[in-house]
Amino acid sequence: MKRLWLLATALLALTPLHAQDARRDAEKQLFAKIVEIPTVEGRSTEFNKLTALLTTEFRKAGITNVMVKDHDGTQTLIARWPAARPSGKKPILLMAHMDVVEAKESDWKYPPFKFREDNGWYLGRGSNDNKAGLTGIVLALQYLREERFAPTRDIVILFTGDEETTGNGARRAATEWRSLIDAEYALNSDAGGGSVYPDGRVEAFGMQIAEKTYADFKLTATNRGGHSSAPRPDNAIYALANAIGALERHRFPPMINDATRATYEALAVADKGQYGELIKRFLADPQDRETADLLEAMDIGSTRTRCVATMLSGGHAPNALPQKAEANVNCRIFPGVKVEDIRQQLQSLSGPDVTVSAVEGSQTPETSPTPLRTDVTEAYKAAVATRFPGAPVLPFQSAGATDGAFLRSQGIPVYGFGGLWGIVGEREGAHGLDERVWADGFHGQIPIWMEMLRRLAG
Ligand SMILES: [Zn+2]
């Protein structure tokens, strides 16, 4: 591993400095173009622009098999680099999403869709989530082609256009377009990458292998109502308030899986203090509620399913008994637990005067963690080591959901992978204000992607 790293450093040293600068500049130019196309939900012409640009860039990488699907008011791009020396292995799939979260210009320090460089950071909506990863994949493929890389298996690319909203692109890819994207496993740039301390030490590079299921539930209390001068014990607002109170006090049972266990095992080694002790106790007995509760207070959502009331409405007049009261409860369900099981538990907590129903269309697919594979984990470590020798790679579970869930639920293993890194303690503003990405992380991801692909498809 060390020899390889020295070799990579030696090669880099052979490239003249001005050539390196020119490369970095070209990479930045492409990234700027991509960030400045405001691919927000509903702006379909912007998706046309981005897919046209990406098609041209893929051609530069010699990839001519590029398909753009128009669907659901957005687009999905699927491209394929066929094996040059086929080994018989199934393709690998590289994933990113083209869409970004809406950004209100008046709230931002600078216009969100104007690319900007500031003090070592690249700014703009989508710079972090997920256009850096997307651009990194494109550039890595171009450079691999330049160095005459001959893949031994097909490399397939899936760029969706609605990850932040409906996930229709990933859902359709995993089902109706399955033959176009089918792969032994997928590497999802939206769910990997590293964090590095300001002094250059690496905290870890993450590999997402599990996601919680998102689901909304409606709690509804109805009542015959009446005149408020004559209150009765039965009251829709009181019934709903009691149900919400019961939910506030409720704790779902603690759980553990391969992803959270791997994260905790690494943290237990890293933390020599009280936190580390707590983790060791939890690992020794994941059913120990008291330990899990203490841990949950620090790592919110990592030891169990969590549900929380998020919206409330009720009544129709100040002087009338309420005929209806409603609340929305948002749940992040632990992998392996059925949405219907959670609905039933919420129903029994709420009592007979409140009806609990799942909000149709709200949920992401129910998934189990993707089993770890030594070849992928080892390749990830080796790829990162070309830049950060000995850096740890840490499997983890996301509290939120990505496109990966749609593939996992259809039997395609998905690994969060990325060479991109951020700086520990520095805000990046994904989905929020003044979104940005660490410039060295952006450029530095490209050779890491290249090494990953050499190892898995070379
Ligand atoms: Zn994303």
- CATH names the topology of the largest domain as Aminopeptidase
Morphology: globular
Taking all Cα atoms into account, the compactness measure Rg is: 24 Å
β-sheet strand percentage: 15-25%
Question: Could you tell me the mean pLDDT?
Answer: 94
Q: Which properties best describe this structure?
A:
single chain, 458 residues, alpha/beta, Aminopeptidase, Alpha-Beta Plaits, six-stranded mixed beta sheet, four-stranded mixed beta sheet, globular, disordered N terminus, binds zinc ion
Could you describe the 3D structure shown?
- This protein is α/β, with parallel strands linked by helices and 458 residues long.
- The protein has two domains: 2-211 and 368-457, Zn peptidases (Aminopeptidase, 3-Layer(aba) Sandwich); 213-358, Alpha-Beta Plaits (2-Layer Sandwich), CATH 3.30.70.360.
- Helices cover 38% and strands 23% of the residues.
- A six-stranded mixed sheet has the order 1-2-6-3-7-17, sandwiched between helices.
- Strand 1 and strand 2 form a beta hairpin.
- It is globular.
- The two termini are 17 Å apart.
- Bound molecules: zinc ion.
- Zinc ion (ZN) is lined by residues 97, 129-130, 163, 190.
